Amino acid sequence: MKELTSAEIRSMFLKFFESKGHSIEPSQSLIPHDDPTLLWINSGVATLKKYFDGSVVPQNKRITNAQKSIRTNDIENVGHTARHHTLFEMMGNFSIGDYFKENAIPWAWELLTAKEWFAMDPEKLYVTVYPKDTDAKDIWLKTGVPLDHIFEVEDNFWDIGQGPSGPDTEIFYDRGVEFDNLAADDPENYPGGENERYLEIWNIVFSQFNHTPEDTYEELPHKNIDTGMGLERVVSVFQNAKTNFETDLFLPIIHTAEKLGSGVKYGDSAVTDVSFKVIADHARAVTFAISDGALPSNEGRGYVIRRLLRRAVLHGRKLGINGEFLTKLVPVVGKIMASYYPEVLENSDYIISVVAAEEKRFNETLTDGLKMLNEVISDTKAKNAKEISGLVAFKLYDTYGFPYELTEEYAQDEALTVDRTGFDVEMNEQRNRARAARSDNKSMGVQSKLLTDLHTPSKYVGWTELNVNKAKLLNIIENGELVKKATTGKVVQVIFDQTPFYAEMGGQIADRGTIENDNEIFGEVVDVQHAPNGQNLHTVKVLKELSIDTDYQLRVDQTFHAQVSKNHTATHMLDQALRNILGKHTSQAGSLVTPEYLRYDFSFNGAVPQKKLDEIEALINEKINASLPIEWIETDIESAQKLGAVAVFTEKYGETVRVVSIGDFNAEFDGGTHAKNTSELGLFKIVSESGIGAGIRRIEAVTGNAAFKLMKQHERMLVQVAQLTKAPQLTDTVSKVQMLQEQLKELERQNTSLATKLASQAANAIFDDVKTINEHTLIAAKIDVTGMDQLRAIADDWKSKEASDVLVLMAQTGAEKVNLIVAMSKTAVDKNLKAGDLVKAIAPIIGGNGGGRPDLAQAGGKNPSGINEALIAAADWLAR
Q1: Residue 42 confidence (pLDDT) above 50
Q2: Which CATH number characterizes residue 491's domain?
């Protein structure tokens, strides 16, 4: 077997399948595009679903790729096993209804064993097959694999529910007796069993059935091949590594981490090795995720990044690494992957800035978490208990990012245990909530044989013509069946030999219009989509009978089309303005272009400041006023890139691409319609800027007449404000509002001061009413104040006067609002009385809940009628 680097292995895999007629699909963003079923791209096939479900027919039915992927369903195992990762690369070859088992199996064997390719020893390779898949077994035998190297395994059937499914065959590499972790006669000591010796390196799925909603399996009209070879695993074989971490994909990160710690080295102990592995794995995942536009947050992808980053920081502390250190690992990750992912190194400054901010934030949070953990340990010991509850351990994990094992280690140092069962219950409930929140859409659609096999030639002519006087109706599809006629009142799909109607794509909605004949309207075009083989598929409301092989006139609604085109041009200008003003790391995350407005989603960390929004708006209007020409050309990808054209979503483009240029301001790969000159937009106005998810912002904007109407609306509102504030001129409105605000603040200050004095007077009266209960002194009363701030002020006064051991105050501060505060003196706390416990006991009576420190706690409620009962309950609690 050859000595190969990870980069050489990846390159050789792709080149091999390219030599077999496959197109190399570039690795796409980790953030799924137009796929609500996935949080991350999690496999090589995930980006190809549109081909496998038949919604799009690829230019080449043979595809190969090396796809970066993230899986987060078992983060806790990372570092503890030899091959668990969050970020990994899956190499694969795919056939979309082209070749099948008879090619896939011999090619796999050729790549693995041929001297010019991987040159593995055939004697070290074993395969498993599905017992009923005799075809696969026969082909392996014909390929030259001995019978004693083929094992039948019942689990070799790939099925994810409804959609494509089928048997699979797996290939294993025998790493030798030195990797034996089981006895020779152990039933799991075979290729396919749970052991360390036989390592699975490739899985080939024969996607030949459709798993139906009725839970039956029907032959697919087009059988497919879907394979997956994990790069990290294969590299460990070539580099004779005990685990994936002792390879050139991870060791440079580990060695850098060694230099940042307190002298601990990788290999010193199993405990510290876990920390090195966690740091190396998570540094890769965080770096790639941020490079692709994801950002740390408290939800979705952002939560995953935050969790990974915090877990790495905690393991860094275990190695004696303090302060911000992950920033130093980002360039190392970039250099390792530079041959195939140069963008990571190019974006390293931006990635470092995001990681640095998050590390700093967590280092502050970490102190709070450790404080809470120490308090929990102290409380547990004070109660003579031996176990920390699972709920507390989960809170430390969920709120502060403490992995369970870290809490357990701290507990063990104090001779305590942690309730693992309780922790697992909370963790499972969180996972169930996450699953319930996911889209219930199918993970992969079912092929439509009719549309997939429909190769009717159809040409789009809408770039230059919006009216076609002679378009032959070639196909009518009604309820999934081809018909010759469509009667009045039906809604059908139709294909013409040529059409001026634009099909929805890239966020731009489809054209609308009519189908006519001899000045009569035969149908209304209400939507247009791309059929799997690229034809424009029109959805039509039939107003008069339509027949195939008949010529019709097609008329696009030109007003609708023009306004959509202008707004589409505006999205390109907005995209460029965002990159110019906010930075090149800003990338498109989605868009919608309609006649009324445009919506543009983009990656950015935090709200865009108003000053920046003003700059963006001003730059776009400057380019509109400059009357820049808008032109497009068709060229090859290399020439387009030399022109500086930007590709969005790392989409797959054909050999010929369309590049739209807006003067010298912007150039993008694009398939939509546009204005001919920026002056046609008239005016650009931002309507709103908001956050829609983790690290994703949304701008909604209008152009032309809609922008003018918006500005007139704002002007009318300003006039109304001027009238209400009695500003002499519109230009005086701001100063007038500021003056009124200052007056209001002064009145509020005076009101607060007066309310505080009244509350102080009331407090003096209640401080004289002290009850003694169970050797503790208690002041408990309802008091007339306006809010919690005044209750806290009274509690401070009570504390300074040492008026009693326990203070309970309640105030009705609204029709259905109650504020409650409980305070304990030092004497009471020393006797194990806690304000938080008392609040929890009586807050439900006033329809609320709350908590706090042992010496001070507060709550809010919605049941004022329960105040007197709660005050009695407070006295009863003290008497218990």
Answers
A1: yes
A2: 2.40.30.130
Asked if the structure places residue 830 within a domain, the reply is yes
Q: How many domains does the chain have?
A: 5
Is 270 within the bounds of a domain? no
635 in the same domain as 779: no
Tell me, what CATH number does 221's domain have?
A: 3.30.930.10
- 302 and 410: one domain? yes
Q: What CA–CA distance (Å, rounded) separates 181 from 242?
A: 12
Tell me, what's the pLDDT at 169?
97
Residue 641 sits in a domain of what CATH number?
3.30.980.10
80 and 150 inside one domain: yes
Same domain, 189 and 315: no
Q: Which residue, 495, 524, 556, sits at the end of a domain?
A: 556
- The reply to whether 792 and 650 lie within a common domain is no
- Contact (Cβ atoms closer than 8 angstroms) between residue 5 and residue 12: no
Token digits of residue 429: 């409930």
Q: What angle do CA 698, 700, 704 make, to 5 degrees?
A: 155
Question: Which pLDDT band holds residue 459 (cuts at 50, 70, 90)?
Answer: very high
> C-alpha angle 701/704/709, rounded to 5°?
80
Does 448 have pLDDT greater than 90? no
Report pLDDT digits (tens) over 811-862. Answer: 998 888 999 999 999 999 999 999 999 999 999 999 988 878 899 999 999 9
Q: Whole domain around residue 817: which residue ranges?
A: 765-879
Tell me: the pLDDT tens digits for 340-349? 999 999 989 9
Q: Flag the least confident range among 90-94, 403-407, 435-439, 622-626.
A: 435-439
Contact 805, 829 (CB under 8 A): no
Where a domain ends, among 713, 739, 774? 713
Alpha-carbon distances of 257 from 273, 280, 281, 316, 363, rounded to whole Å:
11, 8, 12, 8, 18
234/85 same-domain check? yes
Whole-number average pLDDT of the chain:
89
How confident is residue 376, by pLDDT bands cut at 50, 70 and 90? confident
| Contact between residue 129 and residue 137 where contact means Cβ atoms under 8 Å apart | yes
Q: Is 738 contained in some domain?
A: no
Work out the number of other CB atoms within 10 angstroms of the CB of residue 861.
24
Mark whether 525 and 577 lie in a shared domain.
no
Please give the span between the terminal C-alpha atoms of the chain, in angstroms, as a whole number: 78
Rounded Cα distance between 298 and 647, Å, is: 30
Nearest to 88 by CA among 102, 78, 100: 78
E strand residue ranges, 704-800: 771-773, 776-782
Instruction: Kindly state whether residue 799 falls inside one of the protein's structural domains.
Output: yes
Task: Let me know if 219 is exposed, middle or buried by CB neighbors in 10 A (0-12, 13-18, 19+).
Answer: exposed
What is the C-alpha to C-alpha distance for residues 627 and 208, in angstroms, rounded to an integer? 56
Residue 767, C-beta contacts closer than 8 angstroms, at least 6 positions apart: 779, 798, 801, 803, 804
Q: What is the pLDDT of residue 440?
A: 39
Q: CA-CA distance, 332 to 479, in Å (whole number)?
A: 56
On whether the CB atoms of residues 672 and 568 are closer than 8 A, the answer is yes
**Quick check: 515 and 472 in contact, CB under 8 A?**
no
The CATH number of residue 775's host domain is 3.10.310.40
DSSP characters over 169-191: EEEEEE--GGG--S-TT-TT-ST
Q: What would the two tokens of residue 582 be?
A: 């906010």
Band (626; pLDDT cuts 50, 70, 90):
very high
Distance (Å, whole) CA 203 – CA 257: 34
Query: Does residue 88 sit in the same domain as residue 69?
Result: yes
Instruction: Give the angle subtended at the CA of 196 by the CAs of 192 and 201, to the nearest 5°.
Output: 55
Which two tokens mark 357? Answer: 């901010």
Rounded to 5 degrees, what are φ and ψ at 174? -85, 110
Phi, psi of 527 (to 5 degrees): -165, 155
* pTM of the predicted protein model: 0.68
* Residue 308 tokens, joined: 């990974």
Distance CA 282, CA 311 (A): 8
